Amino acid sequence: MDKPVVVITGAAIRIGACIARTFHAEGFSVAISYRSSQTEAMALIDELNAIRPNTAKAWTMEMTSPESVQNFADTVLAHFGRIDVLVNNASSFYPTAYGESSEAQWDDLVGSNLRGAYFLTQRLSAALKEQRGAVVNLVDTHADRPLPKHPIYSIAKAGLKAMTKSLAIELAPQVRANGVAPGAILWPPSLEDDSDPAVIAGREAMLKGIPLAKLGSTQDIADAVYFLACEASYLTGHTLKVDGGRSLS
Hints:
By secondary structure, the protein is an alpha/beta fold. The protein is built from seven helices and seven strands, in the order βαβαβαβαβαβααβ.
């Protein structure tokens, strides 16, 4: 109960899992949520607990369900007794053609990227204030530059960026709230086939738009999240772009 605790949503795989490993390596106990990646979530928890017993726990949570969000928040707090850092990482992502978008798609994308994060933060805010903690939201470069054929997703991430600024005011002075906006970190599904010349050409075209001429890594994002949560003591309401300079193009 005397160890700091980080809560990370959607942390079974990819960026979320890397964030969990990074905080755990710095001495944090780790609470994660997952929606469908139960096997990966349990493997991650076993990995962390093998390093330091009883310092990691996972629960399933549906970000679009207010009841599930509330139950997750209450269960985590009851289990660990404190919350020092909340990382809102969970996110649905898929195209929604404008003119054919459905209300179900809106509810899913806005719910998982924005609404769930807002109400989870609200539920945990008292515990965060008690520890003079921090909130870090995983935004997206497309909050500023909407991704074609992804209007609802882009709108949801823009809302999350605005929420970050609002929380910085509402939670001050006890809690800082910041965001991280990843750029190109992993190849999109359309550029994963190493044997396709068109895919290779598409990768080269993407890299030409990045001044550092390379993809970032999940560790780049995890390091930025840790910096904002634990080291940037006079920074709040800011969204840090971790994109290799891509947003300058």
